[in-house]
C-alpha cells in the first residue's frame, strides 16, 4: 500500500466517521475514535455492499458513501455493546 493510498483511506475514514457521528447523534467517540470507526466502517460498508451485490458508486464519492454506512452500523453496534456492559 502506497503512502498516497493510506492517506486517501485516512481522509475517507475521517469524513465517514464525522458524517456517521453527525447522522447518529450522541454516539460519537471523539475525533480520533470517529476516524478509527470511519476507517473500520469503510471495510464493513464495502463488505456489506459486496455481499448484497450493490454498487454505491465509483470513485471517492462511492467510497465515502460505503464507509459512512459502515461507520453508522459500527457506531450503532458499539452503542449496543456499551449499553449492555
From TrEMBL:
<feature type="transmembrane region" description="Helical">
    <location>
        <begin position="56"/>
        <end position="81"/>
    </location>
</feature>
<feature type="transmembrane region" description="Helical">
    <location>
        <begin position="31"/>
        <end position="50"/>
    </location>
</feature>
<comment type="similarity">
    <text>Belongs to the UPF0410 family.</text>
</comment>
<dbReference type="InterPro" id="IPR007341">
    <property type="entry name" value="Transgly_assoc"/>
</dbReference>
<keyword id="KW-0472">Membrane</keyword>
<keyword id="KW-1133">Transmembrane helix</keyword>
<dbReference type="GO" id="GO:0005886">
    <property type="term" value="C:plasma membrane"/>
</dbReference>
<keyword id="KW-0812">Transmembrane</keyword>
<protein>
    <recommendedName>
        <fullName>Transglycosylase</fullName>
    </recommendedName>
</protein>
<dbReference type="Pfam" id="PF04226">
    <property type="entry name" value="Transgly_assoc"/>
</dbReference>
<feature type="transmembrane region" description="Helical">
    <location>
        <begin position="6"/>
        <end position="24"/>
    </location>
</feature>
<keyword id="KW-1003">Cell membrane</keyword>
